[in-house]
Amino acid sequence: MIEKVLAADSSTHPSQERKLKVAYIMSRFPKLTETFILYEMLAMEEQGVQVEIYPLLRERAQIMHPEARAFVERAHFQPFISLPILRAHLHFWRRTPRAYLSTLWALLRGTWGSFRFFAGGLGIFPKVVYFAYLMATEGVTHVHAHFASHPAAAAFIIRRLVGIPYSFTAHGSDIHRDRHMLREKVSEAAFVVPISSFNRQVILEACGGAAAEKLVSNKLIVIHCGVDTRLFHPRPVHPLDNGSKLPAVPFSLLCIGTLHEVKGQTHLIEACRLLRERGVELTCHFVGDGPDKTALVEQATAAGLAPFVHFYGQQTRDEVARLLQATQVVVAPSVPSRDGRREGIPVVLMEAMASAVPVVSSRLSGIPELVEDGQDGLLTPPGDTAALADVLEQLYRDPGLRYRLGQAGREKVKREFDLYRNAAALARHFGREISS
């Protein structure tokens, strides 16, 4: 088992006066791309926190991280309706009819005007009422939801019905695209965890006084997602990354993430075309799957890049760590999507930087909080293909710069984005809610 990366001070650990039993709620589980949730839960267990999982939906994944299997076996997967679910509703209708009806009304009123949230809220309400019953009977002390959308709505319902305090982590598109009911979720949460200062500001502007009160009372707390800096470790120094002025041939680029507009892969393919025209010998490797795969493959083929651009599909965390050992630069060319989506801080950038691989990304959302341009990575304006090609060519022609950025990136992640340190910070807040 991976050793805990914690300070020796006992204040790092959650209170032992009462056992912490935290229910995690997420939209789908086990979802391969949401490694930050899986490994945060594992880190919590190393803190001595008992973790229970209540997914809103079961993900039928062909590929699963090995560490997820034990969680899957004990997760509280539920259908949309069942006899136990109906019994739970009858229980609350008989015992606390006012709380039951006011909770349903608050959900409907808060999501009115958003078809996705309104329909989704109605869809999850039956099973979440049952979750509330189970959590109350099984001694759950705190609920933590990942994403400010349906998972936070579920936590809101549970608190209204049985009084268990909740918190939620706000990542990216969950607060940028649709903010229906966000004010209510923030107001009733014990505390809120934006993953960046950028997200904290979004919440403050969207929620006004409700968020301001949380900020004043230190309950609107930026806690970054983190990565395992032991698994993602520096590779042996590449012969062409030791300060030599010889360019790497071929120049190896790696882009990891769902193949979707918000990830900006189309701009990377176009940048590769420009680089080939400038005489840069390169290969570009895409890891992930998604709705844009066909269009991206066709784009690469039309640009004459088929021999140099490769698509590998979804990979486990261990496979990603292995790929990072074999690449020269990781590129995450994020852009705002047409429907309003924005990334938070891509975890793949943390993984690359922890591996001392130089990164190139976009000056967008919370990304500059991880990547300081010119210090521990390079940033370009979102969607600026020419600028992307320019900085990639700069890295191609300057191995010494690649080395310096990679080393600085590793130190940044160790200081501010380490999985176990950040999970310990979150666990302390869980403990304070129980002791208060």
General description of the model:
The chain has 436 residues and is an alpha/beta fold. Helices cover 47% and strands 12% of the residues. The protein has helices at residues 35-46, 68-74, 83-95, 97-111, 115-137, 150-162, 173-176, 182-188, 197-207, 209-216, 265-277, 293-302, 317-324, 347-354, 367-370, 385-397, 399-416, 419-435; strands spanning 21-25, 28-29, 50-53, 57-58, 142-146, 166-170, 191-194, 251-256, 282-287, 309-311, 329-332, 359-362, 378-380. The chain has a 6-stranded parallel β-sheet, sandwiched between helices. The chain has a 5-stranded parallel β-sheet with strand order 3-1-5-6-7, sandwiched between helices. α6 links the parallel β5 (142-146) and β6. 48% of the residues are buried. The model is unreliable at 1-17 (pLDDT under 50).
Write the layout of secondary structure elements.
Blueprint (H helix, E strand, L loop, with lengths): L20 E5 L2 E2 L5 H12 L3 E4 L3 E2 L9 H7 L8 H13 L1 H15 L3 H23 L4 E5 L3 H13 L3 E5 L2 H4 L5 H7 L2 E4 L2 H11 L1 H8 L34 E6 L8 H13 L4 E6 L5 H10 L6 E3 L5 H8 L4 E4 L14 H8 L4 E4 L4 H4 L7 E3 L4 H13 L1 H18 L2 H17 L1
Parallel strand pairs: 1-3, 1-5, 2-4, 5-6, 6-7, 8-9, 8-11, 9-10, 11-12, 12-13
